[in-house]
């Protein structure tokens, strides 16, 4: 299918000037063409080719797209310019805006993808400021686990946690101060062993929420031991202390160890 467009004389002369390298003349002719014939898409596309400033180029492509939203040349051109605009180095006195918060001025850039980011979005890493996208991307490379690892982690940790909290409650629950001390000292050790068992069970693959899953299992396993002594009929809050110690320090231990 061929669409024959009437190209107006001004635009034709402008495009010819551009083709032979007479950029200044082309600029003059094509700007005039866009003023006189604002719906002439060839004038806008031609002008985009001869203006220096990226913002001006962007403007020309946008105008062309306003006339013909499906125009491929304008679409490609605009995409290219916008890519350039996000990655370019700032000129003196130019203000940058966070790419996630276009209203927020910033002077920071992600040192990996070079996009401007505001102080709230930027994260300080050992190698400099990074944007959340780049951090996420790197984390995804770091996390090698699969979804079934979560199932494995739960299956391994829940019975161990349940057994351990039952044992702690039984052994240390009636020892008074020393019982609490043993629970306090023993919990990080025992839950550390649970964390290692999980790590071994998932073949040392890392997952974003592995620690959360195991911490969740410790909490769920410990809850009955905390809640049952609080039933009005039994009411013995002292018996809830040892399982509470186990749940609290156990959950924090596995969260720290399974990163
Ligand atoms: Zn980045
Ligand atoms: Zn931001």
Would you mind describing this structure in some detail?
By secondary structure, this protein is mainly alpha-helical. Helix 1 (9-19) packs parallel to helix 3, helix 4 (54-67) runs antiparallel to helix 5 (72-87) and helix 7 packs parallel to helix 9 (210-227). The protein is built from 10 helices and 6 strands; from the N terminus they run H-H-H-H-H-E-E-E-E-E-E-H-H-H-H-H. The protein is rod-shaped, with a radius of gyration of 33 Å. It folds into 3 domains: 9-87, Serine Threonine Protein Phosphatase 5, Tetratricopeptide repeat (Alpha Horseshoe), CATH 1.25.40; 96-142, no CATH class; 148-257, no CATH class. The strands form 3 sheets. It has a two-stranded antiparallel sheet with strand order 1-2. Residues 110, 112-113, 115, 130-131, 133-134 line the site of one zinc ion (ZN).
């Amino acid at each position: 299918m061929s669409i024959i467009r009437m190209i107006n004389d001004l635009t034709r002369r402008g495009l010819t000037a551009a083709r032979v390298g007479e950029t200044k003349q082309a600029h003059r002719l094509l700007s005039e063409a866009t003023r006189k014939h604002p719906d002439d898409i060839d004038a806008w596309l031609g002008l985009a080719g001869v203006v220096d400033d990226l913002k001006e180029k962007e403007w020309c492509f946008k105008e062309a797209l306003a006339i013909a939203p499906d125009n491929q040349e304008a679409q490609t051109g605009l995409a290219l310019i916008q890519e350039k605009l996000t990655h370019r180095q700032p000129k003196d006195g130019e203000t940058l805006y966070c790419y996630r918060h276009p209203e927020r001025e910033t002077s920071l850039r992600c040192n990996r993808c070079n996009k401007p980011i505001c102080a709230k979005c930027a994260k300080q890493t050992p190698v400099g400021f990074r944007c959340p996208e780049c951090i996420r991307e790197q984390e995804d490379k770091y996390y090698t686990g699969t979804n079934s690892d979560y199932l494995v982690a739960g299956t391994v940790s829940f019975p161990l946690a349940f057994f351990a909290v039952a044992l702690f409650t039984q052994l240390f629950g009636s020892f008074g101060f020393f019982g609490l001390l043993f629970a306090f000292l023993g919990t990080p050790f025992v839950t550390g062993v649970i964390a290692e068992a999980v790590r071994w069970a998932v073949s040392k693959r890392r997952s974003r929420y592995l620690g959360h899953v195991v911490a969740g299992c410790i909490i769920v396993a410990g809850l009955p031991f905390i809640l049952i002594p609080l039933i009005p009929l039994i009411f013995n809050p002292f018996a809830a202390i040892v399982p509470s110690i186990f749940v609290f320090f156990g959950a924090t231990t596995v969260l720290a160890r399974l990163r």
